[in-house]
Amino acid sequence: MNWSVIKNTTFLFSIIFLGMSGLLFSQNAEEVYGKSRIQFRFFEWKYYSTPHFDVYYYNGGQKLAKQVTENIEEEYLRITDIMGYAPFDKTKIFIFNSNLDLNQSNVGLNEAQFNISGQTNFLKTHIELAFGGSYNEFNEELIYKISKLYAKDMLFGSGIVSEVFQSNSLFTVPDWFIDGVAAYIAYGWNAEMDDFIRSYLTRNHARNIDKLEGKEAELAGQSIWNFISEKYGRINISNTLNLTRIIRNEEKSITNTLGIPYKAFLNEYRYFYINNFSDIETEQPSNKNQLSKPWRKNLSYKTKISPNGNYLAYTINNKGKYKVRLREIESGIEKTILKGGQKRLSQNFYTDAPVLDWGDSTTLGIVNYERGVNILYLYDPYTNKFQKRDLRRFDQVNQMDIYPNGKTAVLSANVNAQSDLYIISTGRPNIRRLTNDVFDNLYPAFIPTTKRIVFTSNRPSDSLSTEFNYEDVTDNFNLFELDIDQPNQLKQITNYFGQSTNIVIPDSSNVFYLSDKSGIYNLYKLDLQKTTSKQITAFGTGIKQYDIKPDFNYLSYVMDDKGNEKFYLDKDFNSNEGKFLPSTLRKQVELSRNISNPSKDIRARSNPIEISQKPFNKKDSTSDIENR
């Protein structure tokens, strides 16, 4: 026997085996963190660790990730207390600095997924979310995703396939059950849910909620869990969840927990939401003013009217894929002037792009994204020509207002997971930062013929100090005025308990904005000289976005109807007529609780948590992550 040949052959096979092993490792790494989606930047992940979470971040996201890490264990106690359940495994949270970066994510893209009747993804072991411009919304979305993950884990198992499928008693629950409890824990009794369920229960029997899907099911479920909490006490949420886990029937669980027949429960539930609102007279949008196609579903819209009243520009976003359309208001002739994005069916998608605003009537500004970079287009509707400018300094542009001369714009934009205000030149690479703090600074708008801007923020006072921290962020959004020639002086214009958003300033005398003073987002008009406001719409469903041109009596607006967005153009709107709408039950409860406890809800903090910070490389394998 030739031992030399055997030795050489063994050595050769060893080299081949090691090479194949390395190849397999590389493929595994690339499947999870590779280039299954086109990426335009490198994500070098690091993470903080707490007893129940690993919080991953990359360059620019450390400040937000650290804040999440400091608060997440407190939220963990609240979530597990409401649900009456705590998972065994750590949860991994991946934080992206913007939605543009999240669109490039390959984290867990190819991890195994199993579905039973389309109900449950058993093997999703992590959470991904992006900072979208609002810290409050970011925090709510984080709590929603954690709660949903825990609810699935509670009802269907820990995600190990052998454990999930070993039982013959697998069951399904309606879509509203899991999504709804997660939404309730995250958002509570909010305006979106209140609007939807009042409208739905007015037209439908409560039993039909089992047939709802997607966002409608989530909102309906949120309303059911909120009703249980308000009527029977929050403890019965955990009791119902745990009994459902045992007997595997949600209707019997509700009946046995609350001690009433399920049919009687549904009647009480319906009465709770519509009784106090059924006698209130509200406006309804006219079908003749509707421009969105009634048969088109799951679309998002934004609209802007040209200063001369000739054109209506609007965007259609279909789960990340968008179009910008231009409509001649008088003739109704339309055309598509720009399109882009990518439709995503089951992954995260960004619906707020592109951002629109008119400067003068020959300048329509459009901010979209290409190859992972924000781009500003200036479009002339009369010559059909574009000018293009790179805005790569910003992670994401939230809103934009162009000065009437078309040469300057003010942006609300994200840099390093923080939203601030910036002044830019539309034709030159000049950028000036106006704010630098942890607060949300949104919907900026110039006061025409001045150098002052008005914006909305969740700051507690008229201070521009950089010394504030995330604990100072409030739940209320109010209007503030800033002179760009005196950027250290800030003036607070409103002081409401609630939300004031979506600012439009068509002239130097009046500011239009949306507010939920009555519990429903309607349009308000603020006199800048008198600093007094009046309500000028009284819709029973909240306005989501709008634009107004009082000189032409034009009002374009977007609102939800049966779970889908629709947009309208009213050519005969009187912005001088005041309206009144009494407070909804939700707003009454919210105000009474604020009076009894005016300070911001600060929950009891848990014991200090030791936070470890560790680097994590994108090319690490899945097993390495699990071991860490």
Shape: globular
Helix content: 25-40%
Low-confidence stretches: 9-36, 110-123, 160-168, 600-613, 615-628
Q: How many DSSP H or I helices?
A: 13
Strand order of the largest sheet: 4-3-2-1-28
The secondary-structure class comes to alpha+beta
What's the pLDDT, averaged over the residues?
84
Distance between the termini: 48 Å
User: What is the makeup of the main sheet?
Assistant: 5 strands, mixed
Query: Based on DSSP secondary structure assignment, what is the total number of beta strands?
Result: 28
Portion of residues in beta strands equals: 25-35%
Which value, in Å, is the CA radius of gyration? Answer: 26 Å
How does this structure look, described?
With 628 residues, the chain is α+β, with helices and mostly antiparallel strands. It is 29% helix and 27% strand. The protein contains 13 helices and 28 strands. A five-stranded mixed β-sheet has the order 4-3-2-1-28. A hairpin with a 5-residue loop joins strand 17 and strand 18 (452-457). Helix 4 runs antiparallel to helix 6 (175-187). The chain is globular. It starts with a helix and ends with a helix.
Keywords:
4-stranded antiparallel beta sheet; 5-stranded mixed beta sheet; alpha+beta; disordered C terminus; globular; 628 residues; 28 strands
